[in-house]
Design brief:
0% strand, rod-shaped, single chain, 2 helices, mainly alpha
Length: 70
């Protein structure tokens, strides 16, 4: 959960920077759009990070099993 909150806050900052430079005053309720986009990005990033850690754990387990066979 801590990873998700960290990713979410980082995505909000990135979205705000992007909005400041590129969106300007196009969207009236820009904050809601930014928070929604940041939430979606944070979900994707967190899922990919979790998958990566699970794959690394599985690789370590497979290496241990292969070492035991030798």
């Amino acid at each position: 959960m801590k990873e998700f909150i960290g990713n979410f806050l980082a995505c909000i900052v990135i979205c705000w920077i992007f909005a400041f430079f590129f969106l300007g005053l196009i969207v009236e309720k820009m904050w809601a759009l930014i928070i929604f986009i940041a939430f979606v990005l944070a979900v994707f990033i967190t899922v990919f990070i979790k998958q990566e850690s699970r794959i690394e754990e599985l690789e370590k387990k497979v290496e241990k099993l292969l070492d035991k066979q030798d």
